[in-house]
Every structure is written in structure tokens, then in C-alpha cells.
Write a structure and sequence with these properties.
This protein is α+β, with helices and mostly antiparallel strands. It is 42% helix and 15% strand. The protein is built from 19 helices and 13 strands. The longest helix has 16 residues.
């Protein structure tokens, strides 16, 4: 039996590799959106995590609250089990833009399969945010749409306030889940459109629809389909849409490259400036954005200037086949830069998948009582897996570490809390992990902005928490702390 799992998470920050879940909430429904079960729990702050001050101001989970709850290890095991229940279609608001990848890293560092909730046992994923964009564009009467400074805003809390859907504070995970479910019920009233849009998240259907799009150009790499890309990152100023042409599939990554056609700089492209003059959206099948055929009923939001620009650019590409071929090759073969000092917690996309034997070890590790988990570490041959296991135990059962492993974890904590840029802990994109020192400086900046009494108190308590992590020598060199 398939079910929807509407879910939301509140986190210590936005870094998917280093931050952690503080609150998880979900409502399981049948496919007619009738509620079956609720899940909700708070998660205890890990000893190596520095909460983002801005995140605390947003969700208002205090340091005191974050010191309670269940351990991250216990929470992530539960979340993994909930999302991997056979037939689960996980769904949320912008979950494919944030929550899903955030949980993927959490599964990884807690030695759980990061991807099975996407495909195994009839599991799948849907994101309500791009569906909301489509209803806003093409079924406007379903909801009242919030506008600020003459521009539509599709933030969840604004849609809720404008339509009086759910009572409760925004950025409480369960409240946000209830809002998401309420919006979905409005959309499902238009059953045909709901079914059409939700089926976009099926890879085979998405691929088949792409194949029916008209061919805009041909090159040495074959036929290139064209369409109208609808995607949140295009922005409200462009009505979230742009005319595009498919360059093709990447040679290594599992994504497609769609070239935007309504840009001024495209006709100045040469072999040496492709990265500067072209604008590409990378899309995986079964994930946003939606690519629609260029039919009149979908083109009402494109100005005549944008349509003319797209036609002009397409004609230019037709007249310059060698340049078009070079653009195709650039994006087909483009490789992301790998940060050489990527921390183990952030190495999900860098390392190869675990072998069958390593997955079997992880299962054995989870089933073993805490004291036995430590003994199992000695049996790990994969150094990444071993280090992840040491950190897992250090976060959750530090008293069980051997003297050697305790020193290893202590050294790691010292590095996490270090302000020395030469020793910075980096994620896979080269972004440093938030340190106590950096968080304290952010607090000082935030205090200059309008804050309510609760927010001021949240920052006060966070500041005290961070200062306790730092040596007096550092504090004495920083006036105001």
C-alpha cells in the first residue's frame, strides 16, 4: 500500500553536511490525503555542532530545548525507518531543494543507506513547492497568492497567513507539515492537474514527456528538444519560467543541461567564454523543474521581448553550429571542483558507494549494543567508514571510547572549534564549517537589527553556550565578549 509522508525538519543551520536536525515532524496519509499517523520529536544537539544564530532566530528553538530530546543517532534511525517504510512517497515544501539532501547527509554520517528512500520498496519523493508554482501560474483561483512589494512570494508561512489555513507558529515543524498538507488538499481538488504534476516526479514519465517536446536544433550530438522550463530559482520577476533547449545528458553526472534562450549575452559566445555568456539549468529526471511544451496556453507570461530574444538566439545557434557544439561539449563534460580537504562528514558525493560487505557491517553495527559497537570499529577496513563510526560513538556514547579513540575524537572537537583558517573543516563545496568564533561575530551583527525579546534572549543564551566552548585566551583578545 502506497502512502504519502508529509514531513518537515528544523535544523541548526543551512549547511547540509555539517548542521543537524533539531526537530522532525511528519503526517502519513493515504493517497486521498486522509491522515493515518503522526510523528514528531525533538533532537538533542551534538557536541560538535555550532548552531547558526540566524537559524535559531527563525525557528526559535533555544539552546535549552536543544539540550533535550533524543540523540541524533536515535532520531536519524527513526527518520530513516519512517521514510523507508514500503510504499512511502515522501513529500514536503521545497524538500528536494533542502530537506531531502540534508537528511541524505544525516543518514550517511550515521551509517545508514542515504538513497533507499528515493527508490527502494516502491518508495518515492515529491516536492510541493514546484507544484505550487504551477498552480500559481495556471490555476490561480485555487489559493490567494501573497504579494509583497508588487511581487508574488511563495513562502509557506505567507501562503498560510494569506489563506488562513492553519493556526500556529511558522517554522514549527508540525505546523509547517499541517500547512503543506492543507495546501495539497486544495490542489488535489483539481485532480487531473494534481495527477499530471505529481507524475513529473516519476523518472520514466518525465523522460517520456521530454521526448515528445519539439526539436529546436540538431547538432553532431543529435536532436535537441526545446520547451518552457518552470523552476523556482528562475524567480518571480520572470514568472518562474524561461524558454530552454536541451543540450543533452552529462557524461558522468545523472543530470541534463538545459540552455536558457532568453539571454542577451548568448550571441557573444565563443569557445573561450562559454561559462560567462551562457546560462544553464541542470536537471535530474524526476526532479524540478518542469519542462512544458511551447504551446500558447503556457506562454502567457513570456513577454514578446523574451520570446523574440529566444527566437533570435536559437537562429544564431543554428547559424553557428560549431559554437553550439562547443557549448554542448562544455556542459556535457563539465566537472565540479572537488575540495581536496573535504571533511569525512561531507564526503558523501566524493567517495564510492559502500560495498555489500560494508553495508552488512553497518547493519551489524546498528544491531549491536553500544558497548559492542566500539569493539566492532577494529574490524573496519574502510578508513572513511571507520572514522564515521568513531565520530558516531563519540557524539552519542563518548564514555565507551577507548583511550586512543577518545583522544582521536577530542582532537576532532578541538579542530571543529578552532578559528584557524589553515585548520578549517571544509565541506565538499569548499565552505568552512561554522566555528564558535564565527557564530559569535554573527551574533554581534544580528544585535544591530530589530529583535523581539524572545530573539534577544535566544541570542544571549547562544552566546553563553558558545563562550563556554572557547579558551579564555581567545575571549580576552576580543573586546565585547
Amino acid at each position: 500500500m502506497q502512502t504519502f509522508l508529509f514531513y518537515d525538519i528544523e535544523t541548526t543551520g543551512l549547511n547540509k553536511a555539517f548542521d543537524q536536525v533539531l526537530q522532525f515532524a511528519a503526517i502519513r496519509t493515504d493517497l486521498q490525503l486522509r491522515e493515518l499517523k503522526r510523528y514528531e520529536f525533538k533532537v538533542k544537539l551534538n557536541p560538535d555542532v555550532v548552531p547558526s544564530p540566524q537559524a535559531l532566530l527563525t525557528h526559535r528553538i533555544s539552546i535549552a530545548e536543544a539540550s533535550l530530546g533524543i540523540s541524533e543517532y536515535a532520531a536519524i534511525q527513526q527518520i530513516h525507518q519512517i521514510m523507508n517504510e514500503p510504499g512511502t512517497i515522501s513529500i514536503g515544501y521545497n524538500t528536494l531543494g533542502f530537506d531531502d539532501e540534508f537528511l541524505r547527509f544525516a543518514f550517511y554520517r550515521n551509517l545508514l543507506p542515504p538513497y533507499t528512500h528515493q527508490y527502494a520498496n516502491e518508495c518515492a519523493r515529491i516536492d510541493l513547492y514546484p507544484i505550487t508554482i504551477m498552480f500559481h501560474l495556471f490555476k490561480k483561483n485555487i489559493l490567494q497568492w501573497p504579494r509583497i512589494e508588487n511581487e508574488t512570494k511563495l513562502k509557506l508561512e505567507l501562503i498560510n497567513t494569506t489563506n488562513s489555513l492553519v493556526n500556529g507558529r511558522a517554522h514549527d515543524a508540525m505546523v509547517d507539515v499541517e500547512i503543506t498538507l492543507a495546501i495539497a488538499k486544495r490542489f488535489m481538488a483539481e485532480q487531473e492537474m494534481w495527477d499530471y504534476l505529481t507524475s513529473y516526479f516519476n523518472k520514466q514519465i518525465d523522460e517520456a514527456r521530454n521526448a515528445t517536446l519539439p526539436v529546436g536544433l540538431e547538432s553532431a550530438y543529435g536532436k535537441h528538444h526545446e520547451g518552457l522550463m518552470v523552476l523556482g530559482k528562475i524567480g518571480a520577476a520572470y514568472y518562474f519560467q524561461a524558454p530552454v533547449i536541451l543540450l543533452g545528458n552529462h557524461a558522468v553526472y545523472k543530470n541534463q543541461a538545459w540552455l536558457r534562450l532568453d539571454t542577451d549575452a548568448l550571441t557573444s559566445t565563443t569557445a573561450d567564454n562559454i561559462a560567462v555568456t551562457t546560462w544553464v539549468y541542470r536537471k535530474k529526471l524526476g526532479e524540478p523543474g518542469f519542462v512544458l511544451p511551447l504551446k500558447d496556453r503556457f506562454l502567457n507570461y513570456l513577454t514578446q521581448d523574451r520570446l523574440a530574444m529566444a527566437e533570435k538566439n536559437k537562429a544564431w545557434l543554428q547559424q553557428h553550429p560549431e559554437v553550439f557544439k562547443q557549448i554542448v561539449e562544455y556542459y556535457r563534460d563539465f566537472m565540479y571542483t572537488v575540495e581536496p580537504s573535504t571533511d569525512i562528514d561531507a564526503s558523501l558525493y566524493i567517495n564510492t558507494f559502500w560495498t555489500r560487505e560494508e553495508n552488512a557491517f553497518c547493519l551489524q553495527f546498528h544491531r549491536a549494543p553500544p558497548a559492542e559497537k566500539v569493539n566492532l570499529i577494529a574490524k573496519i577496513n574502510n578508513p572513511t567508514l571507520k572514522q564515521l563510526a568513531v565520530r558516531l560513538i563519540g557524539r552519542n556514547y563518548p564514555e565507551l571510547l577507548t583511550d586512543q579513540l577518545k583522544q582521536e575524537f577530542t582532537d576532532y572537537l578541538a579542530r571543529v572549534n578552532s578559528d584557524a583558517s589553515v585548520n578549517a573543516v571544509m565541506d565538499f563545496k569548499g565552505k568552512p564549517r561554522l566555528t564558535p568564533q564565527a557564530a559569535l561575530m554573527e551574533i554581534k551583527t544580528l544585535r544591530d537589527k530589530p529583535l523581539d525579546p524572545t530573539q534577544t534572549q535566544l541570542l544571549d543564551h547562544l552566546e553563553s553556550f558558545l563562550l563556554d566552548k572557547l579558551p579564555q585566551a581567545w575571549i580576552q583578545t576580543k573586546p565585547g565578549f
